[in-house]
Queue: 3 jobs
Job 1
Amino acid sequence: MSVTLIVAALGYFVDVYDLILFGIVRVQSLKSLGYQGSQLLDYGVMLLDIQMAGMLLGGILWGVLGDKKGRVRILFASIMLYSIANFANGFIQSIEGYALCRFIAGVGLAGELGVGVTLVLEILPKDLRGYGTMIVATVGVSGSVIANLTTKFFDWRASFIIGGVLGMVLLVLQFSVLESGIFSQIASKNVSRGNFFSFFTNFKRFSRYIKSVLIGAPIWFSLSILITFSPEFAKALKINGTINAGDAIMYYYLGATFGDFISGFLSQYIKSRKKVVFYFITGLTIMIFVYLIQYDISSSTFYIICALTGLPAGYWAVFITISAEQFGTNLRATAASTIPNFVRGLVIPFTLLFQFFAGFTGVRISGAIVAGVCLVFAFFSLNGLEETYHKDLNYLEE
């Protein structure tokens, strides 16, 4: 059990390292390829969207295979794929090569978290499940801090290569991980497993699925729009000093690291996942408002606001736990892999809406519009989901 928890946590650590690394080196890497000016934003959005498209497809692929073939085998395959893509990313010479590596990395990254969390949830007693995912998320999000520190000492190419090497080292530990007992019990039974389309053939199941996606949307809005494009927001907000996207991401994730620990602990302490998510979405709503009303402040104050925005965004662990606990064993890995990746995939409409409104209103108002839509849907969806704290996970979806 301890080895499984360690591998899942370290796997998510490398996952976050790679996922955040692009946001940190976006400007540096594109400039080294010969791009400048508005191309830095336009190509940055394009590459981010391509990576997220890969994660959408990968979430479905790995989730279905995780329910059909087993959690451990798919965990190994996903880590191997994104490790290879990361390593190759360090040697690209064109925007086309960059896009291909980001797409393949996205596909690989999509499998680690959902399958890893499913495995942890199924091996732990129900009164400890929240602590398990708390550890996975807390260790995992710290990967963003290491990613930023790595770029302080190495260029963007070496940073990608390091991420690939870290993933390959993790594969050695993978051989000590045992398959979930709950999954093993149904593996030999004649029961439908990993049928992604079954989420759409039953209204109640479909409703649970969509609501699970939407409660995680504010996390990735705040990261992908407010923080990733913090240099552009800093200009609009007249921040005194230069804002570096990598530092903004690092401070955001420092806050999120504490947030994931606190949210996971609170969900166990008050014995409710839903209440904790409600508190954290409310806190994130407040911090998004605070972020967008700033004007003529110092860069250090701006970074503090980024950290404080990350704190209430740190309910990712509880969000993944709720999503996985909503569904039976024969669909659990599919749900746990696809739901967070559909949340990440929402970056595509977020960025499209953000760019559309920014052309008329500027980045500040555009950010507020997209945030408002995202938060309204999140609160509505949370209200319609069941509490899963004491739920027995040893059951099947019919």
Job 2
Amino acid sequence: MKGMKHIAIGTLLLLAVSGVSAQSLGDYARAVRKNKPEPSPATRHYDNDNLPADGTLSVVGPPPASTASATPATATANATPAPKTAADAAEHQKAADDWKQKIDQQKEKIDSLSHELDLEQREYRLRAAAFYGDAGTRLRNATQFDKDDAQYKSDVEGKQKAIDDAKQQLSELQEQAQKAGVVEKEKDSDNSSNNDKK
């Protein structure tokens, strides 16, 4: 018992000594900053302490959004190639409508396939619940249920492959439309990802 008291007292003394000699992180950071040599004018380092409050800083890179909005002709020219005549504009619009129609048809195909797969999965779950809920049916029709189960799994696998193929075709259509100058890639991919979540 006395040995435990001596160990406890020794531990407390060691903790007290280490706590007294420990320096806070803030004190250490101030000491390092005070001892840090000032950078030469050729290699000026900016941080929150020495950032100039007055004047302007030069920024390398594209102009800020406010400058880009001040010149709408430049922003429009960078986004999509502008048609030169009314006939070109009509042709461009017709091409955009054609691509939109193809993409919408592909989306409808994906939705239809997904709906069919969902219905088949629901029907299977109902059949399985009815089969496993009735012991007599399980004994009488076990082999038939096994055959139906194997057929269901192959049907689901085929429909899932068809959905994946349709999604791949949609992605390719969107890429082709983007290359043709119809910029709907981001919006359509967001919609297809929303359909995946459903």
Job 3
Amino acid sequence: MYLTPQHILLAGASGLTGEHLLDRLLNEPTVTRVLAPSRKPLAEHPHLENPVGDPAVFLPQLSGRVDIAFCCLGTTIKQAGSEEAFRAVDLDMVVAFAKRAREMGARHLIVISAIGADPKSSIFYNRVKGEMEQALKAQDWPQLTIVRPSLLLGERLEPRLAEQLAGPLSRLIPGKYHGIEVCELARAMWRLALEEQDGVRVVESDELRKLGK
């Protein structure tokens, strides 16, 4: 059974995955409105609404019906500047976005987490991602889809050295640790959005690659 999404809320549209997903959404005939708040203006499109500014300010002001919400928010400790700043984005902002999406009527949330996410992990990054998943599950979504991609492969405006070095190697690793092309991830997220399945679904990277082919 499939949903026919009409009104989409998207966070992180200016990021690597978000921009690919936004392009796909705007070219889908069933999508009549994409509400994509961002810090910087996005390219104009007849079906795009793009509030620009500080998310902490405009998030409570978002309005209109929402059917499905996508969350592609994420940063690195280096970009954020500290572990505290990283948590503010990858945990606090994600949870706040999801809460607002639910208030706006969204019944399905598709969120990007990470391979190895675990609230009890000794690795800070994995622990925060696990805490984020835990917090979203506590929101009691009718349908929550958590995607856990491995290393994302794609051209960033601001290249990350670690990803540039690890990228070629990740293509050789089998299973869920094999790197995933960002275009495949975006396609997989859209396909998952069309599936109607109550409760929580966690999709690991190997399944994402199959869905995104």
